[in-house]
Design a protein that fits this description.
The chain has one helix and four strands. About 10% of the residues lie in helices and about 45% in strands.
Length: about 80
């Protein structure tokens, strides 16, 4: 399987889930947004889906989220398409 995301734009360095990456999209909510972005961690690219909280006491990334290997993302998307809503 060819890595179609091999040239995806990412932040330089070793981003952690708490650092910024290349944001793909955002679903805005009253107290938290769900953010999809591409990050680089130890030289590997991931699709990171994570909550970003915005409140009076704390604003920032939540631990709630997942980082999926970008080279397997196509397979994961095929599985997600099987979900009926």
């Amino acid at each position: 399987m060819e890595d179609e995301y091999a040239d995806a734009k990412i932040e330089e360095g070793e981003a952690t889930p708490t650092e910024s990456g290349n944001e793909i999209g955002r679903i805005t909510g009253a107290t938290a947004d769900i953010v999809v972005r591409i990050i680089d961690f130890k030289g590997n690219k991931y699709v990171d889906i994570r909550k970003y909280l915005h409140g009076t006491k704390y604003s920032g990334w939540s631990r709630k989220g997942i980082s999926l290997p970008i080279n397997q993302f196509g397979e994961i998307m095929e599985m997600l398409k099987m979900i009926q809503v």
